[in-house]
TrEMBL record:
Family: Belongs to the FliD family.
Organism phylogeny: Bacteria, Pseudomonadati, Pseudomonadota, Gammaproteobacteria, Oceanospirillales
Main location: secreted
Top-rank taxon: Bacteria
Role played: Required for morphogenesis and for the elongation of the flagellar filament by facilitating polymerization of the flagellin monomers at the tip of growing filament. Forms a capping structure, which prevents flagellin subunits (transported through the central channel of the flagellum) from leaking out without polymerization at the distal end.
Quaternary data: Homopentamer.
Any one Pfam family match given in the protein's UniProt record, by short name: FliD_C
Name used for this protein in its record: Flagellar hook-associated protein 2
Subcellular locations according to the entry: Secreted; Bacterial flagellum
Domain Flagellar hook-associated protein 2 N-terminal intervals: 11-105
Keyword Secreted: yes
The keyword Transmembrane appears for this protein: no
Keywords: Bacterial flagellum, Cell projection, Cilium, Coiled coil, Flagellum, Secreted
All residue ranges annotated as the Flagellar hook-associated protein 2 C-terminal domain in the record: 212-433
Amino acid sequence: MASISSLGIGSGLDLNGLLNQLNEAERGKLEPIKQQIETQQVKISAYGELKGALSGFQSANETLNDASLFQSLSASASGNAVQAAAGPEASPGQYAIEVEQLATAGSLATQRVNDLDTVLNDADATLDLTFTDDSLDHGVAIAADSTLEDVRDAINADSDAAVTASIVNDGEGYRLAVMSQETGEQAAVVDANFADLVTQTTLEDEAVLQDGQDAMLEVNGIAVSNASNQLDDAIQGVTLSLQGTGNSTLTVEQDAEAVQQAVVDFVETYNELKETADKLTAYNGEDGQAGDLIGDSAVRSIESRLRSDLASVVSVGDEHTMLADLGMTLRVDGTLELDEVKLETALAEGPGEVGAFFAGEAATDGMAGRLDTTLEQLLDTNGALEGAIGGAENRIDSLNDRYTRTEQSIDNTIARYQKQFGQLDGMLAQMNQTSAYLSQQLSSLPGQNGEGGGMF
């Protein structure tokens, strides 16, 4: 409310200050509504924090509900000759690998040129590159008056050349060196008509050729050759990367480490969820501070349903029926504790049984499947959490409407006060004028100022 500076001038009273005080007192009615709105906003933020922790646990649980996790294999190789990776089509087993030679790319270094600035040809020409596989043969266009660097650049700019060109200084001059882009005998460059292309200078020495070769190895005594040092089909489902000559023993086995890490993530994200819920519902008696969701029914419902699923018995599989069989137990405070040694033992003895416990035979059979159903319901738009958020948002809308109505009522009340104060100011001003007039008239009556003809 804007103050009226002229209010009270007529009466001499501080009616403007009084009106401002009344306005502040009336607007105090808005503070409880503001506080209630802030409380609901804090709740929505807290629900969002809880939702984030719940989604994190859902992601970790979905990993355990994927049956392929328990069928994944890992490949490890001894020695430095081979590195390997197992794919979904691999089978457990052990393989003796002997790498006899690595695949190399063929290369050709041309005759020597004394000076890089020497012009090689006086007319347009073609540098013919010849390969073991004649389907790769290609001619590179060389412009007239090209230097060795110009020839190099022309080769590298030709996407069909199948070689990479560079210049090598052998201590006595410069050579154009071309190397096949692919390894193996068939992709090797074996000749170039460089000497025929050069017309303006005398070449020295001879071209230097290094043959390309295929990789040669034995897998369990079976000879294998390959144009590349990466073999995708020598062992079904296994990719071999040859690193050097020598012997290696390759072992393909169940990837227990991936499963164990998934279980660790499951436990950690559940505990983070529990700690978040505890923080939001805690009460600190020392300082009287209460969590933002203390006593909230949605949080209690979420905790109750998850605890019920975790403590339940799974009927799929013969070996493991409860989390405790895999080293996971619920502590008194509601968090999970993991015995990693017990989990490792269970995975070593029967990874399939561990998979059956978590993933089951169908998507909802195992422990993870059961939890996944619960989590989807909790996070659904019609679930307890979204319902609580929606309820808080509706309360904010209602409180905002109430705030607006109250504010309008206050404005109307102050406007009424202002009108009444204006009337009062006018009335008092008129009374003051009347009083002044009467005082003046009385003072002018005979005998009021000590003058006149008296007896003395």
